[in-house]
């Protein structure tokens, strides 16, 4: 049923519909509304789960790790410094192949302290082995949680997943969202059956020593599983579309790209603003299109190369920066297009909540047309 | 697309007003988007909240710079913040004040003043003006029906509070209707 609800509350509803058995989380802005809502549901018997209150994000994800290893469907949510504090545990969760799903309300990392949006937090965990979804709007953020559990728990994958949606810009926005029924979600997402679990009657170990004779193979297997997730996301996303009318089979999604000369590549909520800017540029006769990256890990390199094969130039928008290098998305898009020779320019923008407007997107298009890029965009020169 | 910007101070319910206006407008069959300007909200500090209305799905995520409508919950903001900035020609500005305006709105913009604080004090016993100004907004712009506003308030508040807030909204609605 369509209702006007806050992004955070819609996500909490979606999580409830996924029937997690254990939730462990530590509140942090702008994630707080999600975990408050879930704690409320557990306290009021609307969700039959153990809600573990913890002293930190490190403990939150550690508790999830144990609960998942014991065979329960497990959920957490965090952002920014909270995710940074989970860094160590994130690698362990992926290495132990535990299908935990975690919401990330994307927020900048300190210092200086910023509670506002960019995508530095989850991008900084790009090498951890978690699947990473990025939502354009709150409908997508909501649906992707349900899809994430299916993909993560697939026996051929068994990896954790982030569902990333922009802090405040989506998490605190009220808009129309179709919340699925429990009956529908139950049909799509069956009860969690662990492949293996901690069981005193049949003991096994997770995360043991791997000597130099074994470690390399573990990493290889984890990488293979993450790459296999592409196919599973396509299959599960299509199935979701067949059942509920919203198809998420595409890892990347084109908008007015068919005859585009200039392509913009972006992730997350900025894609909506880009689409509006593209419509206006199209009306003015400019052949511009968007390629939205919905799944950043596994990285859809072949899909990007195929989608952009006919464009003349590419502008990549990064709400992150690999300091001392470039934007993480731009680097990987350039790698995906290396063989084609299509020029790719990156633009670092919107960090720490700096607003990005249609006129900014138009300005970036004129910059890339002139071959100017690989730079920060929107710097206030008077402050430098 | 039409856009509303609400100026208030932390604690006056600007964000709630944006949400409830969005809910009421959606009942009337338009797409909506409501969100706060993400500041470090403290009681008394200037805050902003926004609502977009459109006949199709709203994709844009930037803040509102050229609003069609402005609500100013606290006229003392006018000297601190450029509350009328960017307002479109033909736009409507609603200011909560009991005084005659000693400021000018841009040319071609309609100014409506209403003493929402007195209405709120009478109806709620508290100087929380958001629900009164929602009533004024409904009357001045026609973006939301009063019945939809009533439904949104009934849905949000416990019964006794809903009744009082609907009364405040009704009084402001009638006052503005009479004045235009």
What does this structure look like?
- The complex is a heterodimer of chains A (384) and B (180).
- Chain A has 384 residues and is an alpha/beta fold.
- Helix content of chain A is 39%, strand content 18%.
- In chain A, helix 10 links the parallel strand 10 and strand 11 (288-293).
- Chain A is globular, with a radius of gyration of 20 Å.
- The N and C termini of chain A lie far apart (50 Å).
- The mean pLDDT of chain A is 97.
- With 180 residues, chain B is an alpha/beta fold.
- Helices cover 37% and strands 21% of the residues of chain B.
- In chain B, strands 2-3-1-4-5-6 form a 6-stranded mixed beta sheet, with helices on one face.
- The longest helix of chain B has 21 residues, at 159-179.
- The chains are: A alpha/beta (384), B alpha/beta (180).
Task: Pick out its properties.
heterodimer, A: 384 residues, alpha/beta, Rossmann fold, 7-stranded mixed beta sheet, 6-stranded mixed beta sheet, globular, B: 180 residues, Pyruvate-ferredoxin Oxidoreductase, domain 3, 5 helices, 37% helix
So what's the overall shape of chain A?
A: globular
Query: Structurally, how many domains make up the residues of chain A?
Result: 2
**Radius of gyration of chain A, CA atoms, in whole angstroms:** 20 Å
The CATH architecture of chain B: 3-Layer(aba) Sandwich
Q: What is the count of helical runs of chain A?
A: 13
CATH class designation of the largest domain in chain A: Alpha Beta
Summarize the amount of helix of chain B as a percent range: 25-40%
Instruction: Report how far the terminal alpha carbons of chain B are from each other.
Output: 24 Å
Beta-strand residue fraction of chain B: 15-25%
**Biggest sheet of chain A, in brief?**
7 strands, mixed
Overall 3D form of chain B: globular
Largest sheet of chain B: 6 strands, mixed
Query: Greatest chain-chain interface?
Result: A-B, 28 and 20 residues
Number of helices of chain B: 5
Structural class determined from secondary elements of chain B = alpha/beta
What's the average pLDDT of chain A?
A: 97
């Amino acid at each position: 049923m369509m209702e006007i609800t806050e992004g955070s509350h819609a996500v909490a509803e979606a999580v409830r519909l996924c029937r997690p058995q254990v939730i462990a989380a530590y509140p942090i802005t702008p994630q707080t509304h999600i975990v408050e809502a879930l704690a409320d549901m557990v306290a009021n018997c609307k969700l039959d789960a153990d809600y573990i209150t913890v002293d930190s994000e490190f403990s939150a994800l550690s508790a999830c790790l144990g609960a998942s290893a014991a065979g329960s469907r497990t959920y957490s949510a965090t952002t920014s410094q909270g995710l940074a504090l989970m860094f160590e545990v994130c690698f362990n969760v992926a290495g132990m192949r535990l299908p935990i799903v975690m919401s990330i309300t994307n927020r900048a990392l300190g210092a200086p302290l910023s509670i506002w949006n960019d995508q530095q937090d989850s991008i900084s965990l790009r090498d951890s082995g978690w699947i990473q979804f990025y939502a354009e709007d709150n409908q997508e953020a909501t649906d992707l949680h349900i899809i994430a559990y299916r993909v993560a728990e697939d026996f051929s994958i068994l990896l954790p997943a982030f569902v990333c949606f922009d802090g405040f810009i989506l998490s605190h926005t009220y808009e129309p969202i179709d919340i699925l029924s429990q009956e529908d979600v139950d049909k799509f997402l069956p009860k969690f059956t662990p492949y293996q679990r901690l069981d005193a009657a049949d003991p096994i170990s997770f995360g043991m020593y791997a000597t130099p004779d074994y470690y390399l193979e573990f990493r290889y297997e984890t990488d293979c599983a993450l790459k296999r997730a592409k196919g599973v996301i396509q299959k599960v996303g299509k199935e979701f579309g067949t059942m509920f009318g919203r198809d998420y089979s595409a890892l990347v999604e084109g908008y007015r790209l068919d005859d585009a000369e200039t392509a913009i590549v972006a992730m997350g909520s900025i894609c909506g603003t880009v689409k509006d800017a593209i419509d206006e540029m199209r009306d003015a006769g400019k052949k511009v299109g968007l390629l939205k990256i919905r799944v950043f890990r596994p990285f859809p390199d072949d899909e990007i190369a195929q989608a952009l094969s006919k464009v003349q130039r590419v502008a990549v928008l990064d709400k992150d920066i690999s300091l001392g290098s470039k934007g993480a998305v731009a680097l990987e898009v350039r790698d995906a297009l290396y063989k084609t020779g299509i020029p790719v320019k990156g633009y670092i923008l919107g960090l720490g909540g700096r607003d990005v407007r249609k006129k900014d997107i138009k300005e970036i298009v004129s910059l890339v047309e002139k071959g100017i890029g690989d730079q920060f965009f929107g710097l206030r020169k008077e402050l430098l | 697309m039409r856009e509303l910007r609400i100026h208030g101070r932390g604690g006056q319910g600007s964000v709630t007003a944006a949400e409830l206006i969005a809910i009421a407008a959606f009942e009337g069959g338009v797409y909506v988007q409501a969100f706060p300007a993400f500041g470090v909200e403290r009681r008394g500090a200037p805050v902003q909240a926004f609502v977009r209305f459109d006949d199709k799905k709203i994709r844009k995520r930037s803040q509102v710079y050229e609003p069609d409508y402005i609500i100013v919950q606290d006229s003392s903001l006018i000297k601190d913040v450029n509350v009328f900035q960017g307002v479109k020609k033909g736009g409507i500005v609603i200011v909560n004040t009991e005084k005659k305006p000693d400021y000018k709105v841009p040319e071609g913009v309609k100014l409506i003043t209403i003493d929402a604080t007195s209405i709120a004090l009478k109806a709620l016993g508290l100087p929380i003006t958001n629900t009164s100004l929602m009533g004024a907004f409904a009357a001045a712009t026609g973006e939301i029906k009063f019945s939809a506003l009533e439904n949104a308030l009934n849905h949000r508040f416990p019964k006794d509070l809903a009744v009082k807030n609907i009364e405040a909204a009704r009084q402001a609605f009638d006052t503005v209707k009479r004045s235009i």
